[in-house]
Amino acid sequence: MPTPSAGRRFKDAIYEQFARVAKALASAHRIELVDLLAQGPRTVEALAQLSEMSLANTSQHLQVLRGAGLVEATKQGLFVTYRLADGTVADLFLGLRGVAEGRLAEVDRIKREFLAERDQLEAVDERALRRRVRDGDVTLIDVRPREEYEAGHIPGAVSMPLPDLVKELATLPKKAEIVAYCRGPYCVLAVEAVSLLRKKGFRAVRLEDGILDWSAHGFRLEASGVK
Amino acid sequence: MPTPSAGRRFKDAIYEQFARVAKALASAHRIELVDLLAQGPRTVEALAQLSEMSLANTSQHLQVLRGAGLVEATKQGLFVTYRLADGTVADLFLGLRGVAEGRLAEVDRIKREFLAERDQLEAVDERALRRRVRDGDVTLIDVRPREEYEAGHIPGAVSMPLPDLVKELATLPKKAEIVAYCRGPYCVLAVEAVSLLRKKGFRAVRLEDGILDWSAHGFRLEASGVK
DNA sequence: ATATTATTCAAGCGATTATTTGAACTATGG
DNA sequence: CCATAGTTCAAATAATCGCTTGAATAATAT
Description:
Chain A has 227 residues and is an alpha/beta fold.
């Protein structure tokens, strides 16, 4: 084989770097971690629990992500908190998700299959939603864990983590419509929330968007101080 | 190990699909193919030549990309032409490149190292460029292969493929500034064009953007009919 | 100091997977 | 039927992966 030219060596080296980023994302587990971190910073332990992986394994996958510059870690006391390095990483995740949704028929199939086991859950138009939330026409609930709500949520939303939902039923309006959202189209929290609310006689629908989609559409987010 | 819940199986399946897309891009060769296809449709043979891979190898990498829904193929007579499946694929490539540029120090290092062997080539502000091209203040040349120019180019640019540049020198202004561009920041065609022009006594600078960057900034492209 | 907790590191295992080349094969057109 | 463009297959190599286990490190509390 001939010795490569300088231009070829340059290209190979550059494309190899781009591939490094893709390689870091070329694992379902690591993509899940990125998805979780897009909701806000998290400790290793929390990530391990949410992703249902062992602690050591979670830690290792996080190292891989860090090696590709996708996440950053800061140590506060005993805990190491990871966060996305950059807004561009969240955009990259959205891009990946978008291509998968648009180009891989399996995504639609899997989604349909899963939702078929549950109720048929129609989506909600986010443009109309914005107006109706402002007018107090609907109650918008954020059913993610409290920390994620605090790290950023849709303006006007009330935090109501799924596990607490049953206890909080009394605070919800019986007549007005309730809209629930969580991490995004593939997060099951809102699906379960709506399912539960309907069983209890409420009028509830699900918003497919998570905060990532919401802000990608150019809308603002709101954050709370840490409790 | 306990049987995974329905929600977990759903998540795993979905994230696996996202990872499929990332896996397709987790190879320097395949990213180069995507980069080339972002300039316009190409036959397998052309791609093999441009990427300096064997035909069989190129074909196989293209199959992988096709399997992930990133490219599409159409057969016209003897030739199979590949193209990006979608504008979102080009965006994904830009996202990948952007993260790599922003987060991996190596990218900058490699670039600097390569350019050091050549002249120091300053970039050009594309906002000012637009105005100056419109005013006829500069001559903008597109030094990519003719087909890529025809598939889409910056408005006002003249096609002047690098191999033909020497022959065309007479048609270029001796006094006005010449701006050369090619496929993007990591394409070496414009670097060499500027280098050559300067040696011949022209005032030439390089535009880092390729058509992908140009249209990502919201500017229009122009296309020619096939010759 | 010592114990405790959170995280990382190192080693190892098993298995899979990716890359590439050359040859065989298919399809198209002259 | 032959040349061309592309795909596919087989095979060899190499590499990497993902996960577990157990020890190491680091910060904090007692």
